[in-house]
Amino acid sequence: MTMEGFRVLDEKSLREYIKATPSLASKLGNEVDNFKIKEVGDGNLNFVYIVISPSGSIVIKQAIPYVRCIGESWPMTKERSYFEATALKRQHEPPHIILRKGLIAGVEYPLLAEHMAEFMANTLFYTSLLYLTTTQHKSAVAEFCGNVELCRLTEQVVFSDPYKISEFNRWTSPYLDTDAEAVRNDKILKLEVAELKSKFCEKTQALIHGDLHTGSVMVTHESTQVIDPEFAFYGPMGFDIGAFIGNLFLAYFSQDGHVEQGNDRKTYKTWIMDTIADTWNLFYKKFTSLWDIHKEGPGEAYLHEIYNDLELRELVKQKYMMDLFHDSLGFAAAKMIRRIVGVAHVEDFESISDLVKRSDCERRALEFAKNLMKKRRNFNTIADVIAVAK
Ligand code: ADP
Ligand code: SR1
Ligand code: MG
Ligand code: MG
Ligand code: MG
Asked: What is the pLDDT of residue 1?
């Protein structure tokens, strides 16, 4: 990581930077002395500025050389912005409100499951060996294999720290003290998380977003946009599907903490569960239909000469999708556990100010997640998973 020539932007220096950068100034109609700057970053890592002039607006995101929510004691490569920019070019550009905030407010998004299923099916299928030749796939893997520090951050905060004593871990204390200790002493859980960590580190299945929680999705009723792919690399598909579904489960378990007078959130909880089910089921449909469409295409995982048989193709598909389902459930569980006893928590729970209520919600989520991680291979359908969560 290089610090040479680096400075953290503030309003004044950003103003000078924009003035001196014609490609940015032109987007603001060159009204260089007439624009407003506001820092809106609410994430854990970076600073985000919205710059508005009467003739246009831009969003500027600065990756600083350390973890923002911790400080300079946790250095982090600023070159992560390269991977974010490269992945954005492959995917698409942002707008709208952060989904997590909508879920806390109890807003339903009728097209969310369909849009996320579509996003994941497209980004995962077209970057996998179901579509690419092994030559194309290897060069794509190589392009992203330098995103080491961001991967190492995930390895630490998702797959390691929650299962050991770490200065970074926290939980709603003292209420969850014994629950956090139970995670650290759970041998079966540690066996399972090791398997998931090994998949995360070793399985270059597709270009994954790498941080696909509900804070990386921006929504309106009609539209859904995915942002913040700075963790993108070739990894297991289930890590993205699990991140999204796991964070919807967190939203579900937090709802009892957001009950207001006249709104028990029962209907909303049902909507979240339906959205989880629809996300997986629609993903399954879209992903396998892409596979069918491209079965004679360039993808080298299952060569057409060998798998040109309907029954065999069905068998292969079922096995692939069941393995992916179990991976997704395992990663969903890991992503839930880290948000309750690890370093970075979620606003879904953090915004519940009554700590007894908050810890009750968190404990239910944690118990569900532990069970999900251990028993994931016993589930055949998403409906079975939801029945257990309920
Ligand atoms: P971090 O990597 O620190 O999580 P994000 O890319 O998620 O940073 O950006 C932090 C916040 O900035 C987002 O949660 C969102 O509120 C806001 N933001 C980011 N990109 C945009 C955008 N294109 N338009 C509007 N707001 C944005
Ligand atoms: C120090 S952990 C910070 C977390 O925020 C990012 O959005 C990732 O989820 C990362 O794990
Ligand atoms: Mg973010
Ligand atoms: Mg973030
Ligand atoms: Mg980020």
From this structure: 46
SS3 category, 244: helix
**Greatest distance between any 2 Cα atoms in the chain:** 68
Ligand 2 contacts CB of residue 67 (under 6 A): yes
| Residue nearest atom 19 of ligand 1, based on CA coordinates | 48
pLDDT in the model for residue 360:
98
Question: What counts of helices (H) and strands (E) characterise the chain?
Answer: 16, 10
> Which 8-state DSSP code applies to residue 215?
T
Nearest CA to ligand 2 atom 9: 211
- ipTM reported for the complex, 2 dp: 0.96
> Are residues 88 and 58 part of one domain?
no
Is position 301 within any domain? yes
Q: Which of 8, 50, 61 to mutate to test the pocket of ligand 1 (most atoms within 8 A of CB)?
A: 61
Which ligand 1 atom lies nearest to the CA of residue 93?
23
Q: Is the peptide bond before 174 cis (omega within 30 degrees of 0)?
A: yes
Identify whether residues 182 and 257 lie together within a single domain.
Answer: yes
Determine the structural domain holding residue 33 and report its residue range: 11-72
**44 pocket-lining for ligand 2 (C-beta < 6 Å):** yes
pLDDT at residue 323, as a whole number: 98
- Are 154 and 292 contained in the same domain? yes
SS3 state of residue 1: coil
For residue 175, give the CATH number of its domain: 3.90.1200.10
Rounded Cα distance between 342 and 114, Å, is 31
Confidence of residue 245 (pLDDT cuts 50, 70, 90): very high
Q: Are 51 and 113 members of one domain?
A: no
| Mutation probe of ligand 2 site: the residue of 42, 45, 159, 226 with most atoms within 8 A of C-beta | 45
| Band (27; pLDDT cuts 50, 70, 90) | confident
Which residues have a Cβ under 8 Å from the Cβ of 229 and sit 6 or more positions away? 83, 84, 87, 88, 91, 209, 210, 211, 216
62 and 129 fall within a common domain: no
The total number of structural domains in the chain stands at 2
**Same domain for 306 and 345?**
yes
Over the stretch 82-91, which tens digit does the pLDDT of each residue have? 999 888 877 7
